[in-house]
Structures are given as structure tokens and as C-alpha cells.
Amino acid sequence: MSIWAQRVFPGGADDLCDRVQGIFAEIFTAMGSPVNMLLLCVETPETTRLVAELPHPVLLHGLEGFQRIDAADVPVAGELVVGWEDRFERQFRYQAAPVL
After folding, report:
1. Hey, which residues does 48 pair with through a beta bridge?
2. How far is CA 67 from CA 8, 16, 79, 94, in A?
3. Torsion of CA 74, 78, 83, 87, to 10 degrees
4. Could you write out the DSSP letters of every residue in 62-97?
5. Count of the separate structural domains present in the chain
6. Which of 69, 84, 93, 77 is nearest to 7 (CA)?
7. pLDDT tens by residue, 56-84
8. Within a domain: residue 18?
9. What three-state secondary structure class fits 30?
10. Which distant-in-sequence residues (6+ apart) come within 8 Å of 52 by Cβ?
11. The CATH number of the domain where 28 resides is what?
12. Is the Cβ–Cβ distance between 93 and 77 less than 8 Å?
């Protein structure tokens, strides 16, 4: 059974956010690119929120700073960062660009 987790980065933390995305991509590849594993990004002018679906809770230990969330707290829209696009499109909408 999949779990959901998230990590929120303040604005200006782009390098750290990129590094976390790279770690997630490495885990995804090492796991054989499972269908029930994805990373999406939800951006606002103030924050970047990374939301991860993980096929097993033990994988949460490899993602520093992520906190488990309920499925009800998963956003309905975002940008796919890592995962299968067809899987993403079945569950999510693409996030519109923030208005600045």
C-alpha cells in the first residue's frame, strides 16, 4: 500500500529542492521505476511543496525532511517531477503558473 509524504521549502531554497529531487529520482530508478511512486511539485510565490507517493513506508527514511500526510491532503494539481506521466495524468491536473 502506498503512502504520501511532503516537504515544504521556503522561497529561495532552489538548490536544496533540486538536490532532494535528485535523491528521489535515484531511489525511483533503483526501485525499478514503480508505477505507484511519483514526485510532484506545487509552487507558490512563497514556497515550493514536494509531494511524494511511495510504494512502501520504509522509503520515507531516505527522504530527509519529508513528513507523512493523509491521502486527503494530497493536492489535486501540480507539476510532475519524477514518475510515470500517464499515472500522473489519471490522478492530477497540471498546475497553472502562479500569478506574480
Report:
1. 9, 43
2. 10, 17, 19, 23
3. 70
4. GSTT-EEE-GGGS-SEEEEEES-HHHHHHH-EEPPP
5. 1
6. 69
7. 999 999 999 999 999 999 999 999 999 99
8. yes
9. helix
10. 4, 5, 6, 24, 37, 38, 39, 40, 63, 66
11. 3.30.70
12. yes
Inside any domain, residue 19: yes
Q: Are 77 and 95 in contact (CB under 8 A)?
A: yes
Could you tell me if 42 and 74 are in contact, meaning their C-beta atoms sit under 8 angstroms apart? no
What is the average pLDDT value for the chain, to the nearest integer? 90
pTM score, two decimals?
Answer: 0.89
Q: Is residue 85 part of a domain?
A: yes
CB-CB contact of 52 with 6 (8 Å): yes
